[in-house]
Amino acid sequence: SCYDDQDNLNFKKIKYDKLIPIYTKVFERFFNNLNLNKSLKFEFNIVNYTCMTSSQFMKEHFHPDTDFTVVHYIKFDKKLHKPTLFRNSNIFSSYAYLLQPKLNDYLNKNSIENSWFFKNCWMDINENDICITPGLLNHSVPNQPETNNARITIVSNIKIQ
């Protein structure tokens, strides 16, 4: 990851200029699909990239200084890599399966629409997918399996103006 590593001379400086117009269109489409009361203006910045191989992971965290967090899966092999894990902070999520066992049997744990019920969830990610979530949503990257095939993402933050 380049987080706090921008001055490391061992790493080549990345130019994100070509991504700016692409991301702008994706984010505009995202907000247009939210069924908002009125149009909004936003700004975003690309904050870092991650490159993970064998046994690398990222501890649980959230982005308190932004409205939305974006992960662009640049290189991601769904047969090898593990996607971002999101933690449900609703108080009932740790024991909902005990209170509603029948519901637990019917709900597809891999469906984002059912994430409200489960303690943890993840999205069905493919290479080049862009995942936009609230900045306050706790998330982590699980320990990656034994591989030299890198899992690469670019992370952005969006602030509503």
Report what the structure shows.
This protein is of the alpha+beta class and 161 residues long. It contains three helices and eight strands; from the N terminus they run αββββααββββ. The strands form two sheets. Strands 1-8-3-6 form a four-stranded antiparallel beta sheet, with no helix packed on it. The chain has a four-stranded antiparallel beta sheet with strand order 2-7-4-5, with no helix packed on it. The longest helix is centred in the N-terminal third of the chain and has 14 residues, at 19-32. It is globular. The two termini are 28 Å apart.
Q: How far apart, in Å, are the first and last alpha carbons?
A: 28 Å
**For the CA atoms, what is the radius of gyration?**
17 Å
Give the DSSP E fraction (strand runs of 2 or more residues): 25-35%
The parts where pLDDT drops under 50 for at least 5 residues are: none
Percent range for helical residues? 10-25%
List the total number of helices. 3
Tell me which oligomeric state these chains represent: single chain
E-strand count: 8
Q: Main β-sheet, in a few words?
A: 4 strands, antiparallel
